[in-house]
Specification:
Number of strands: 14
Radius of gyration: 20 Å
Bound molecules: zinc ion
Structural class: alpha/beta
Largest sheet: 7 strands, mixed
Distance between the termini: 26 Å
Shape: globular
Helix content: 10-25%
Strand order of the largest sheet: 9-10-11-12-13-1-14
Number of helices: 8
Length: about 280
């Protein structure tokens, strides 16, 4: 069980996983409810009411092994993996794909096509560099079939490389351990703070210094969220992945009944994302 070793992350988000032997899945559990309950669920999901709120971040999504994994961070305008392209993922501008298994990437053309249909800005899709060429071919095939543009920006990112989502937010890929090439992502907040020696100086002076190219601020980055995608627990002992374990929120898949086996230090810090969209 992964979480026992995670001493640094403040919160661990367990996304529901259904192993062949682990009994009832989250999806089955939802479908077992009455039609009325399902309707109410749909309404709530549209409003985002079912999002978990952790460390100030709303988080939605689901993960059922072999079927669909998609986790969205609506306040950051991004999603991790696309699963079968659930409705709420479409409104996210940035998409980070962990690996090429169908349950993580299958909905990709639909995601791009639906954003085009709604006349939303073309999305930016970040994939492991090693699969970028295959993803390009995938889009070429779809564009040839339906004679559409499928406008998007595709970025190949290697482990250790960073992508700037916005001035105060960047994402770094980290190594995960799976049966095919895969990587996780760490979201960092980026803050600029005035260097002490410039503290108290008038604004106009600081502006002139900036214009002269003087570096008057220090940059501070904080690992906020880490998403592993599919991985064996080896990612925990990889020294290059220290920030994944230091992140305020770690999103990972674990076997469904593992929550009950958590040691006391982790109780109240682990949340299960089981409601889907
Ligand atoms: Zn996989």
């Amino acid at each position: 069980m992964f979480c026992q070793n995670l001493k640094h992350s403040r919160f661990c988000l367990q996304i529901s996983i259904s192993m062949a032997s682990s009994g009832e899945t989250a999806r089955e559990s939802i479908d077992a409810r009455s039609d009325n309950q399902k309707q109410q669920q749909k309404k709530k999901n549209r409003a985002g009411a079912e999002d978990l709120q952790i460390e100030g971040y709303p988080i939605g999504g689901l993960s059922i092994a072999g079927h669909e994994t998609c986790v969205i961070m609506p306040s950051l305008n991004l999603a991790f993996d696309i699963g079968k392209c659930p409705q709420r993922a479409i409104s996210q501008q940035f998409l980070f794909i962990s690996h090429g298994h169908m349950d993580h990437i299958g909905g990709l053309p639909m995601y791009v096509a639906t954003r085009g249909l709604y006349r939303m800005a073309p999305p930016t899709i970040i994939v492991p560099k090693v699969i970028k060429e295959s993803v390009e071919k995938l889009f070429e095939a779809h564009m040839a079939m339906d004679h559409s543009e499928l406008e998007h920006t595709l970025v190949g990112l290697d482990v250790g490389e960073e992508f700037c989502v916005r001035k105060d937010l960047k994402v770094r890929a980290f190594k995960t351990y799976h049966v095919i090439p895969s990587q996780g992502y760490i979201v960092y907040s980026v803050k600029q703070k005035l260097k002490q020696e410039y503290s108290g100086r008038p604004g106009a002076e600081l502006k002139s210094l900036r214009l002269l190219g003087v570096e008057i601020t220090n940059t501070y980055t904080t690992p906020e969220i880490a998403f592993t995608g599919d991985t064996m627990s080896d990612f925990i002992t990889d020294v290059d992945n220290a920030d994944a374990l230091r992140a305020k929120i770690l999103i990972m898949e674990v076997i469904e009944n593992a929550l009950s086996a958590l040691p006391p230090p982790l109780s109240g810090r682990v949340f299960a994302l089981t409601n889907g969209f």
